[in-house]
From TrEMBL:
Organism encoding this protein: Thiosulfativibrio zosterae
GO molecular function terms noted in the UniProt entry: carboxyl-O-methyltransferase activity; malonyl-CoA methyltransferase activity; S-adenosylmethionine-dependent methyltransferase activity
Name of this chain's protein: Malonyl-[acyl-carrier protein] O-methyltransferase
The keyword Manganese is annotated on this UniProt entry: no
EC number: 2.1.1.197
Length: 308
């Protein structure tokens, strides 16, 4: 199990606040998809909490979707939060000229860690989080905190990265040395198990793959730096390298260019989508176990039988 340095994460995202919006192409697209999935959830929240709000990409969507709700944006990095507040003030200024739907009382910006949200228990109707959970090395602890602030029957909807994320970069480094240079990411089944362990019910998980392409491998590294993404392990010092090894890694990364028809360098991101309710898991049917997984035979599947 990797152990993250929270101060290191905070520092890098603080510094990246200036360049984040321009480089956050994937984060915007994933936020769009998360927002679209809320079309399928019948909920009219009075209080929405965006944890890991960054510069407010998803927060803005929540304000637009639920204009009467109180929307709170939480982030570990103060620099990111100031950027989110700046975007909100710009939007509000424009909105006032056009008879804005928002009031200042409806938007709050909170500099805090996902592990210790400064909110009363049962206060939140909808908790959203876009590509933040991969920076939490103790999912049980953070899900416990999410469950605490959600009201009964409240909804958690989130995205995070799965194990295939940055697989090309990880393989390029593995051919260079045996040290950790890329964070590891948790499988969606383990995330679903963690949800149930911490008081969430009816979790729904799926995976969506994205491939960003670049002219050169160094472009992948530049984008990661621009958004503040870095190796966050406590012992990350062991992963520091000289110029020669870095150059070797880039040469290994070049091997991924050949199979692609556009001759671009790929960077794969496995995005895990999940949502669950702040309610006891309901175990239905003889084939459904405590993990929330349903096992059916191939014959059952072909015949259209449902196990629940």
């Amino acid at each position: 199990m990797q152990t993250f340095n929270r101060a290191h994460i905070r520092q890098h995202f603080d510094h990246a606040a200036v360049s984040y919006d321009e480089a956050a192409v994937l984060q915007r697209q994933v936020a769009d998809h998360l927002d679209e999935r809320l079309d399928l959830i019948a909920i009219q929240p009075q209080v929405v909490l965006d944890v890991g709000a960054g510069t407010g990409i998803l927060t803005q969507k929540m304000r637009a979707r639920y204009p009467k709700a109180q929307v709170m944006a939480v982030d570990l990095a103060l620099g990111m939060l100031k950027k989110a507040q700046h975007h909100y003030q710009q939007q509000r200024s424009f909105g006032q000229k056009a008879k804005s739907l928002f009031s200042s009382e409806q938007q709050h910006f909170i500099n805090a860690d996902a592990y210790a949200l400064p909110l009363a228990s049962g206060q939140v109707d909808l908790l959203v989080s876009n590509l933040m959970l991969q920076w939490c090395d103790d999912l049980d602890a953070v899900f416990q905190e999410f469950r605490r602030v959600l009201r009964p029957e409240g909804v958690l909807i989130f995205t995070t990265f799965g194990p295939d994320t940055l697989k090309e970069l990880r393989q390029a480094w593995s051919k260079t040395d045996q040290k950790a240079h890329v964070n590891t990411f948790i499988d969606m089944h383990d995330i679903g198990d963690a949800l149930i362990r911490n008081g969430f019910g009816q979790p729904v998980m799926d995976v969506e793959d994205f491939v960003l392409t670049y002219d050169k491998p160094i472009g992948v590294l530049k984008d990661l730096k621009a958004i503040g993404a870095t190796l966050a392990n406590q012992d990350r010092g062991a992963g520091l390298m000289g110029k020669q090894r870095f150059t070797q890694m880039l040469e290994h990364y070049e091997a991924f260019r050949a199979p692609r028809t556009d001759q671009k360098i790929p960077a794969t991101y496995e995005v895990v989508h999940g949502h669950a309710w702040a309610a006891q898991e309901v175990i239905k049917g003889p084939n459904r176990d405590r993990s929330g997984l349903v096992e059916i035979s191939l014959d059952q599947f072909k015949s259209g039988l449902k196990p629940i």
